[in-house]
Amino acid sequence: TQSLTQTVPLTLISSSTLSALKTQYPSEPHLVAKFGKRNYSPRSETSILFSPDGNYLVIAEHTVKIVDVKNYQVAREFEIPYEGFDFPNMTIDSKSKFVAIVIFIHKEEKSHVLVWNMQTSELLYDWILQPAIQSEATDTYLVHLNSIVFLPNSTKLAFGNGNTVEVRDIQENSEPMVFELGENTFASQISYPNDGRFLYVFMSWDKWHTFPALYKTIFVAQIWDMNTYKLRREIKFPEIKSTTEFMSLHNSYLLT
Questions:
Q1: Strand 148-150's sheet: what is its strand order?
Q2: Under 8 Å CB-to-CB from 140, ≥6 apart: which residues?
Q3: Cβ-based neighbour number of residue 247 at 10 Å
Q4: Are 136 and 125 a contacting pair, CB within 8 Å?
Q5: 248 Cβ partners below 8 Å, 6+ apart?
Q6: Which pLDDT score is estimated for 231?
Q7: What is the CA radius of gyration of the chain?
Q8: What is the pLDDT of residue 203?
Q9: Is there a contact between 160 and 143 (Cβ–Cβ < 8 Å)?
Q10: Residue (of 104, 85, 88) closest to 47 by Cα position
């Protein structure tokens, strides 16, 4: 029997190797863009993302625009049926058929997952997300999530919902697979490498108790087997003073 360390690798990369990553992965600038960023709750009025095939640039503002990179013309534009929202995150499937975004609506204080058919401009789904519940001895925190990703070569969409990760098939509209992450654990980021064996989940949580001395950060990494739907490995990093270290998930790697 092989150890989990051998069968389910999780590699840490220090900042000293960042220049090597730029050389090794010149076509993946997001490796650098995510370095040193806390991704668990960004708030922005605009999101921009290239489709995996490189044919489209998707710009989400008050509407979602699909720009054809060959002529820089807006090929399609989708209306968003809400007002007063931010764009925490966006993802596109590998065949550029579907685009999914997470928006946080201020008036509702809730996050929604919206999914469009990129070819017909039809809004297919509008799911309301539950916040993650983080309980401490004297405090309870509600964390609004933004983690979302299409599984490679698939129409399955994975996103954080409360203290779980849901995986839904956009085409089949079947019941979701639900991964229970456990108490006080949520998905700040989700990754699904191309080999398709494992789903990687990463939590970065800042606990704001008393400013500023008791600000703490907790990192947790989980690896789920997509064949058995069982947790294969969990790493709980020691609690540290906030802002002293940052981590970001990319495929099966944690950038530190």
A1: 148-150, 156-161, 164-169, 177-180
A2: 133, 134
A3: 22
A4: no
A5: 34, 35, 36, 37, 39, 189, 202, 254, 255
A6: 96
A7: 18
A8: 94
A9: no
A10: 88
Contact 191, 152 (CB under 8 A): no
Smallest Cα–Cα separation from 156: which of 142, 167, 143? Answer: 167
The Cα 83–Cα 80 span in angstroms is 8
The set of residues, in sequence order, having a beta carbon less than 8 Å from that of 186 and lying 6+ positions away, is 132, 134, 143, 145, 160, 162, 163, 203, 205
Q: Which two tokens stand for residue 109?
A: 């204080």
User: Using an 8 Å Cβ cutoff, are 157 and 112 in contact?
Assistant: no
What's this model's pTM, rounded to 2 decimal places?
0.78
- Residue 231 tokens read as 């947790």
Nearest to 64, CA basis, from 103, 26, 25: 103
pLDDT tens per residue, range 118-138: 989 999 999 999 999 988 767
Q: How far apart are CA 255 and CA 247, in angstroms?
A: 5
Using a 10 angstrom Cβ sphere, with 0-12 exposed, 13-18 middle and 19 or more buried, the burial of residue 65 is middle
Give SS3 for 137. coil
| C-alpha 183: how far from chain center | 19
- Structure tokens given for 101: 């975004």
Cα–Cα dist 53/118, whole Å:
14
Q: Which residue has the higher pLDDT, 41 or 193?
A: 193
